[in-house]
């Protein structure tokens, strides 16, 4: 169209036309793109800035990311692909995804990235592996108190109990103090269902309390779940973010406010951040074992939490601390406590006496030998008397041994008297005299059923101190012997030497020491 300034469109021949599209019947948009690119090449023009970034990588090495980061996110609004990690200050993190979607790898990467930048005395880590054991290498981290498997119910209970006690301790102090605590769980739904029975309701309540209230006192969790409804709604208030990987049921995406098509076909390691709506790809370590070893070398070990162990079936008496008997009360470490696997003392004030209740082959005679041996360690010059009408290990540790009723009078010189099979012993007044003195102690081992049925037996006076040991008890009735209420269930297997140490009517599950 001509104008006063010349034609409105200038047509210039730049050379040969662009080559035809190689695809037969290619869409018009493809042919147009090919023509534009050819024209730009002919004119020597620089490539323009693309308004989009390359796709996220299908594989990403954890070592290529900045410290603390575990993934690359795709932010199309900027557009950028920032490195992202888990911010413990934001609460718990839940990783939702079907098996094989990459949730367990994400758990490992987060654990490694978090411990690599925080010293063991500032971060304590625990892991629960309800899957195939993929978290086991984390046990080598100096920050780690243990990796607990699904079959280790005793350790699971002890871990939950420790976290609940730490939660209560921190809530009672102002301000809360202590290192950050992070619990990694591969299979949160499986962990909660593990205690969904009459024996586990108390443990489940403790676990839920830790999840609900833990973030306020720096106790946080990173956990995997395989479906949207795996975590009760009441616990989600403490969750800071959720990363949604490929789900087994695409319709579950709507539970997170996402269209099913958004998650369809996500490759392993790819997820959507529910809070920001960004897609990300989680990096994986080249070798978890090598990464753990490098972190251990970095921090030079030490400073982490006490391990989550089990109550051993055999506790050598020599492994316990030296008892304290300077004045009163006496503190005699005779066992390991189930609660913290630390020495549990028998505490005797002036005039206190001790009852050891147990049926046949529960270890009551051995308990007497342990008490006698502990006193001997602290007071080598003490005169120990024993009553043993049947063969007993007491005969090897006592200075005076009465093997029949006629020899009871010899015990008047003893500073402490131990009586085995007390139900067989009829007192001639010697034992009553010991029980009446505030500078003497008497320890009696008795069958609980016989004692209950023997009204007027001298051993009933021993019960007044509410002090002693109840071995493999009938929890409905045996606690009454010492004025204690015994738990109806215990996680430790029944075995000789295992029972409840009762001090001032308070019962604690213990494993008694063993004298070689």
Overall description:
- α2 (103-116) runs parallel beside α7 (288-299) and α3 (153-171) crosses α5 (201-213).
- The chain has 516 residues and is an alpha/beta fold.
- It has helices spanning 28-43, 103-116, 153-171, 188-194, 201-213, 260-263, 288-299, 364-378, 430-436, 448-453; strands at residues 2-3, 6-7, 71-74, 83-84, 92-96, 123-129, 144-149, 180-186, 219-225, 239-244, 270-273, 279-282, 315-316, 330-337, 343-348, 354-357, 384-387, 400-402, 416-419, 441-446, 467-471, 498-503, 506-514.
- The termini are far apart.
Distance between the amino and carboxyl termini: 113 Å
| Overall spatial form | elongated
Number of extended strands: 23
Radius of gyration: 35 Å
Query: Helical percent range?
Result: 10-25%
Strand content is 15-25%
**Could you give a short account of the major beta sheet?**
11 strands, mixed
Mean pLDDT: 90
Q: Helix segment count?
A: 10
Q: Which spans of ≥5 residues are poorly predicted at pLDDT below 50?
A: none
Q: Which secondary-structure class do the elements indicate? A: alpha/beta
